[in-house]
Amino acid sequence: MINLIIKYTQIFILDQYGNYVVQYVIMLKDMNVNKQIADEFLKMNVISISKQKFSSNVIEKVKKKFNKVF
Q1: Do 70 and 39 form a contact (C-beta atoms < 8 A)?
Q2: Domain that holds residue 41
Q3: What is the pTM of this model?
Q4: Which member of 13, 18, 30, 66 lies 3.0 to 4.6 Å from 55 by CB, making a disulfide possible if both were Cys?
Q5: Looking at the 3D structure of the chain, how many domains does it have?
């Protein structure tokens, strides 16, 4: 299941409910999975998705968890 979430991260983070799935996976303590999700973020325009309603929630969760700004 996690592999499918990683594969479709770009779709999930833009979705009204899918963004919660990605946020949940990010909060898991599996750094390998988090790295794979981060790699998916890097394929996207992070500035653009951080301005959108649902995907901005995911970006905020990443920022809080890793204390990082893209």
Answers
A1: no
A2: 2-66
A3: 0.81
A4: 13
A5: 1
